[in-house]
Amino acid sequence: MLRFFRVLAAAQTEKKLRGAVGRICVFSGNTGMEPKLYRPPAEVRGMSSLDRDAFTQTISVPAVRVPVRVLNKVVKSLKKSSIQRPGVPRVVQDTEENADYRLVLLDPHRVTSPTSFSEAEAEALRSFGVPEELHHYELKLTYENLKSEEVLEAVLPQGQDVTSGFSRVGHIAHMNLRDHQLQYKNLIGQVIMDKNPGVTCVVNKTNIIDSTYRNFQMEVLAGEENMVAKVKENGLTYKFDFSRVYWNPRLSTEHERVVQLTKWGDTVFDVFAGVGPFAIPAARRGANVLANDLNPESHRWLQHNCKLNKVEKKVRTFNLDGRAFIQGPLREELPALLKEKVRVHVVMNLPALALDFLDAFRGLLHQEPQCEENLPTVHCYGFSKDDDPDTDVVKRASQSLGFPLEKLCSVHFVRNVAPNKDMLCVMFTLPKEVLYSTEAQTELSEEPAPKRKKCDEPS
Question: How far apart are CA 349 and CA 364, in angstroms?
């Protein structure tokens, strides 16, 4: 039988409850609680300018009254069933102002009646002398207590996708909003910034990509317009202007995988180096690195990051077209390295185009070496939308090289960048038939001019 207790609204109690309202009632049966107790008020639907106060509401949650002397033990025992909300305490003052008791708030999605407790939880309550009796507790929820996806789900039109995911680049949250979300873009940006400590700038990438320099046009949705980010990856620090260079935090594992293949004394040619996520850790492992990027901004930050990580003496940097780098510095250095039997790695991380650059190796050198054991190892990245992406990238690499690689290479899946679009890495030893081919070299050409296209997501 339901028993109601009077509401206590003393200022001291309100302060202790941190916004929670103290009206409770005891019940012993199923109350038929609605599953969407956390849904914000319906009036916020369609809001385009964020009004935080409009999300305030009062909901009923179950609670158990626990003696203070066993409080810590009970809280630990009910860890899985207790309420888990941002900014909401699991333990509040007993609304009867009984100093010997506290209320432990429970998750209404997990606990709807005394029979909802697991056997272990029920046994713990009995052993601590806590009655298996639930109370209703009226809890005031505010905007601060809601998760970002709950706020956005309440605001955006029903039935439409809710985007609360983003890439974190230092203090910048990088989003990729869909068309139907654009009219709410500033509200979405503000919510993301509110709900993620340390994020002081939220940007949205547009559907225009500069395929030469691999940087997106982007607009600031919320916060400061400071695009210079500082990030940590695999124990190293990188600094760069995110609006003018390419950086993808999802590639940290791939950077580490390839770098682990290098050893002290190896030489690494990084054809499309960006700001240094392959070049710098390879240099830290003791490799000698020649790193190149066509983008002047990437080249400038690459040099800065080499100094930042104290590897500037191990890395030589270049600001050249990819083919010019292969047929220039790489060709000049390679004969001596082969003669000295130095292990050589060539990293080509420009997945939209790198496979097409493999033809630059045809006939690169003229005099065949006496030893073929240390021919360069190539790590070339590509995108594929084919039903058999592994076969597709090997076929395209073979066509570009003018030599079949089917049984001479390995393919590593990196990540899915869009529906039916994979990023892969083809690794192979550069065949001597290609490196010393009598076929005329590909005419030196520049990387494609900036072009505008709808982008899925780059590497």
Answer: 20
